[in-house]
Amino acid sequence: MRILILGGIGEAVALAKRLTPRHEVIYSIAGKGRCPDLACAVRVGGFGGIDGLTAFLRDNGIDLLLDATHPYAAQISRHAARAAERAQIPLWAYRRPSWQPEPGDDWRFAADWAGVRTALAPFRRPFFTIGLEPLQRLTEIPPSQHWLVRCLAAAPPQVANLTLLCATGPFHLDQELNLLRDFQIDVLVAKNSGGVAVEGKLVAARRLGIAVVMLERPALPEADCSFGDVE
After folding, report:
1. 155 CB-near residues (< 8 Å, 6+ apart)
2. Model pTM above 0.85
3. 10: closest CA among 211, 193, 201?
4. pLDDT tens, 140-155?
5. Among residues 204, 145, 127, which one has the least CA distance to residue 172?
6. Helix (H, G, I), strand (E, B), or coil: what is residue 41?
7. Distance (Å, rounded) from C-alpha 134 to C-alpha 113?
8. Of the given ranges (3-12, 46-55, 108-117, 155-164), which has the lowest mean pLDDT?
9. Where are the domains of the chain?
10. Mean pLDDT on 207-217
11. What is the pLDDT of residues 23-40, one digit of tens each?
12. CATH class of the domain comprising 107-215
């Protein structure tokens, strides 16, 4: 069977390793993170939307499309569902289980950026771990706040009340505790990504009594088979 895996998270790499001995696997990654070392073929870059992905599936004789992208990569997941339907092949989807609040957590949920801004109103030093969007909203920083933004890579903007950290996880608990203390963070802004690679920030916030504004997951399309465990 020829399988195309749309990857980008650690579990996608694990799936590729498990499936490669028995199937012909192509692992696809958008190119924003590390390129994994795999025994199967690895494709880097986009497909050119639904039409491009559909053409790739047909031209390469793909029998199964496996969506193992990030829980917030909703556009890619939507494209995968449409392309699989057009190519008349099954779509399987790995849906990583979300984090759940634990005793001692102070989570405030936000459905979108407007909700995040509202939730941040009483705080002074937010720490953003939701990607590049805060850097597109720099004109919205209130005079009373100083933003700390961590993302994979970005050009440092010249803004007085912003600190930019370009870094790639995983981040250890001690690192997160020190960062929250050093920057006097009073609220963490996070996506409910799930997994263990970046969970340390939530544990650190819990230990230090820091509130969390949790950006809720987007709705994802149905798949022929959905699962939440790669074992």
Report:
1. none
2. yes
3. 193
4. 999 999 999 999 877 8
5. 204
6. strand
7. 9
8. 155-164
9. 2-94, 107-215
10. 97
11. 999 999 987 666 788 999
12. alpha beta
